[in-house]
């Protein structure tokens, strides 16, 4: 089912519905996803400031996919930005591995 998300509260409703559809208690869902029950509660209540990484961990853990509908004109720019991001991530990973290798020496 596709729904429009306009704010944090809408995400909270979607997360709560996904959890309840799986018949999971909040504490059980949080434990299996790897976040605190408190954090999951904040997400479900639509807290305005939550850690993005943990939010996507919750969404993934409950099988909630997120998509964004951007204007057609932005599509080509988006592809270019993705390539830049991937290159930055790859450079950071190489630096991390080099530091680990140096620490092992």
TrEMBL record:
Residues 15-70 form the HTH cro/C1-type domain. It comes from Caballeronia temeraria. It comes from the Bacteria. GO terms for molecular function: DNA binding. InterPro entries: Cro/C1-type_HTH, Lambda_DNA-bd_dom_sf. This is Helix-turn-helix domain-containing protein.
